[in-house]
Amino acid sequence: MSRPSTPAEAYELLLEGNRRFVESTCEHPNQDAAHRAALVPGQKPFAVLLGCSDSRLAAEIIFDQGLGDLFVVRTAGHVAGPEVLGSIEYGVGPLGAPLVVVLGHDSCGAVTAARQATVDGANPQGYIGDLVEKVTPSVLSARAEGVEEVDDIVDVHVERTTDLLLSRSAVLAERVREGKCAIAGLSYRLGDGTVRQVASRGPLT
């Protein structure tokens, strides 16, 4: 299969892979020795994926992709600091990926911790506290809209992360504006393995 050249093609390829995963008909593409050897000179992933670090959210597995297909960046609560933004810019710039995905999930521990911190005023110690602080604006924004349930807050956090990427990365914003790249904000269900779109920026169709 040729590499997708447009955001819409890349997005559909990801969704097709997720459907195979959900239906237990995975093809496990691009995982053989010949493909591994072919990638040695360089990579050309068709999508950049910023996902939560949750161990149940392994991108290549839930989208049924293989080596060289996805440029994956993962942090707890898909928090996006300078290193994450730089990685995404590398994926859409030098590597030319036409799609960026922000992937959240239900029962997110980072969102749960941030929500609890706004209730009892106690922030976790160490760098976990820093992470919670970065998720807290999404919790407060959700609360202002009357949203209190963790899984609904996750949707707000995914959408806010999508907008944050565009507002903080001039490289990504320019490529989206030119139609060369799009951003899809997705929420993954741990129980059935499906993904649901909660945000989109740029030409996904």
How would you describe this protein?
It contains eight helices and five strands, in the order H-H-E-H-E-H-E-H-H-H-H-E-E. By secondary structure, the chain is of the alpha/beta class. The protein has one domain (7-201): Carbonic anhydrase (Beta-carbonic Anhydrase, Chain A, 3-Layer(aba) Sandwich). A five-stranded mixed sheet has the order 2-1-3-4-5, sandwiched between helices. Helix 3 (59-62) links the parallel strand 1 (47-52) and strand 2. The longest helix has 19 residues, at 126-144. InterPro entries: Carbonic_anhydrase, Carbonic_anhydrase_CS, Carbonic_anhydrase_sf. Its EC number is 4.2.1.1.
Q: What's the alpha carbon Rg, rounded to whole Å?
A: 17 Å
Under CATH, the topology is which?
Answer: Beta-carbonic Anhydrase, Chain A
What is the percentage of strand-forming residues?
Answer: 15-25%
Structural class: alpha/beta
How does the major sheet shape up?
5 strands, mixed
Overall number of strands:
5
Strand order of the largest sheet: 2-1-3-4-5
The CATH class: Alpha Beta
User: Uncertain spans, ≥5 residues at pLDDT below 50?
Assistant: none
Distance between the termini: 20 Å
**Distinct helical segment count:** 8
What is the domain tally?
1
The average pLDDT value, as a whole number, equals 95
Overall geometry: globular
CATH architecture descriptor: 3-Layer(aba) Sandwich
* Order of H and E elements: HHEHEHEHHHHEE
Question: Which superfamily, in CATH terms, is the homologous superfamily?
Answer: Carbonic anhydrase
Percentage of residues assigned to helices: 40-55%
Family: Belongs to the beta-class carbonic anhydrase family.
Organism: Saccharopolyspora griseoalba
Function: Catalyzes the reversible hydration of carbon dioxide to form bicarbonate.
Keywords: Lyase, Zinc
